[in-house]
Amino acid sequence: MDEKQQQKMINELEGSDRELSGLWAVAVIIVAVFMSAFHFYVAGFGLPGIGSKTFLIFHLTLALVLIFMIFPIKKRMGQTNIPIYDIALAAYAFYVGMFIIQRQDASSIMSGDPTGYEIFIGLSLIILVLEATRRVVGYPLVVIAFIFIAYFFLGEFMPGQFHHTRGDFERFIYEITYRNNGIFGTPIYASAQFVFIFILFGAVLESTGAGKMFIDLALRAFGRFKGGPAKASVMASGMMGSISGSSTANAVTTGTFTIPLMKKVGFKPHVAGGVEVAASSSGQFLPPIMGAAAFIMVELTSIPYYEIIQSAIIPAILCYVGILFMVHFEASKNGIKGMDRSELVKGRRLLMQQGYLLIPIFVLLYFLVIERVSVNNSAFFSITILLVIALFAHRFKESVGRAFVFAAILLGLAYSIQFIIQYVNIGLYNLNDVFNISFFSSETIRWKGEIATMVLIGIIVALVFALGQKKFKVDAAPVRYGARELLSGFELAARNSLSIVVACATAGILIGVITTSGLSTKFTRIVVGFSSDLAALVPSFMTTENTELYFALILTVFACLLLGLGLPTTATYVVLAAIVAPVLVDMDVPVIVAHLFVLYYGVLADDTPPINLPAYATAGIANAGPVRTGVQGFKFDTAALLLPFVFTMNPTILLITDAGWIEVTLAIITATIGMVAFASFIQNWLITKYHWIERMIALVVALMFIQNNVWTDIGAVVIAAGLFGFQYYKSKKQNKEVTAKAS
């Protein structure tokens, strides 16, 4: 499956089978590339003289225009052009956006008394957002939005804690569209400021062929072991998933290579697809990017970035350990071996060929963790150095002299343009007097001296790798990066962002309803009261000091799975972080714990049948049924099902306590044993097949590790050791019986 077919599959799964050609296709490319270039420029230089609210409105407006150009009114229409009604919708969306930008500081808006026409435009924006969400994300989130809107207007008829008397139509439109706690609230701010630029980073990295490199590296590391291709799939998808905001796109990109290999060594088609589903989605847990969730978490929690990735790293590794053991048990049950060493690419040769694609990731970490530069600037510099390296890697290999001249010119421009721009800005500023306008400022166009440094580093890296390839006779990277690949990456980023943009806008409607109706102050009391009622039903000898919290967490899990159905994982986290996480925080759960808890179960919702798009993607590649594939994906993800309960009850593994390294190590070991025990319970296999009693013992061991108590931990370790010993004895006995029969 080539890149065009991959993108076609992703588009169809996400609701667009409109295949444009000619001028229509060019128009879409122009808008998409402009959208990406606009965000890239803002990430690096900001927008002088333009407020952040204007940026958010323009961000959403471009997304709406692009959605009505790309996504048909319903699936499987087979359109090859943009119908007149969608052209009208795109044009009207642009008009609505520009009107709100123009009127955002009007006296009627600032005083909270909008005119009738401003109310009409606000209503239009809500309808456009919901229709765009329906086309891109599907019905689940739209239905939830309508339920919240209905609650706002019918609150006076609701009983008990749900009662309110704030259901005024004009107030609703004003709060949702013109204030900062509705559509243009925190979710869309996170989408515009953080998510998009990292989707762009991932798309550009993908356009360089990095996905294939990650797969080859993972195969080299795990391919020869039992069930090797599946284990390699887990690792490769984890690396790609961390930088990708779309589990569906990740599943298609890596699954195209890994699923056929899994089938080749003996995995059933639906199992191979399920492994890829679990691995692709769980990449959202993995630092440094966490599918952009890390940066949204910074905004929502005010916790520094380095503290968030420090807390997230151990659970993320444990999650992948759980999936790897699920794969290992699956391979053991079915006698699936690994690949022959001769089939694997040599690691050193691969790193020499494409290892330079890892440099931008290290640059990103350097700026974020060491220099602690802003998130946007860090991504901007990383994309800049990535583009330079990708551009020159092939060209230095082909002709050092010619490429060196080109590189010198580019470096000279990157350095000197900061001085030239001063005079350009003076000229633009003087145009204000000529045309009697106030549009241009003294900093209309910006530049940064650090760009020249990034260009220089990129050129040096590309030259070193090219000379190394020549010396050791290593082929150049498969992708020769040029203008076509650049435009493809920028277009792909805009397309991949659309589901997140409109989902975040719709999430803003939900948050606006919760805030305006007063439900935000009641929601915690409702959950706590219900949890207390459930805890009261438990016999006293079975209760602990955490019983009430357990029930609250279980209710939270169901809320996460419900609200996350059919949503992109990043958008799911935004919704859950705004609605559900505050409840846990109000119950004295640490902020970072609450947000990681909802993130984990929100991502799991993406793998929950029947609405799990990654399963439909991998099922198509594996030639398997999507429902069976989805069930398998959920099954492989359940290895980490109890992990959020573990770190909620024992935050030591999040590195947020004062515990010493011995206590942290013990917490990691016990959590790992618990996850392996739970994985073995799910797979009904440890060293050999479980008897049902052994299987129940494995479940008890896993549950005992949830409770943060030294005695339950010791007891669980002893039982686990006994279970392992019995399984080992049982396996040896079975092998002897087989040998005796064979002789």
TrEMBL record:
Transmembrane stretches, start-end: 21-42, 54-71, 83-102, 114-130, 137-154, 188-205, 312-329, 350-369, 375-393, 405-431, 451-468, 498-519, 549-567, 574-603, 638-657, 664-685, 697-726
Keyword terms of this UniProt record: Membrane, Transmembrane, Transmembrane helix
UniProt xrefs under InterPro entries: DctM, DUF3394, TRAP_DctM-Dct_fused
Short name of any one Pfam family annotated for the protein: DUF3394
Residue ranges constituting the TRAP C4-dicarboxylate transport system permease DctM subunit domain according to the UniProt record: 126-410, 469-657
UniProt-listed PANTHER family: BLL3936 PROTEIN
Protein name: TRAP transporter, 4TM/12TM fusion protein
Organism: Tenuibacillus multivorans
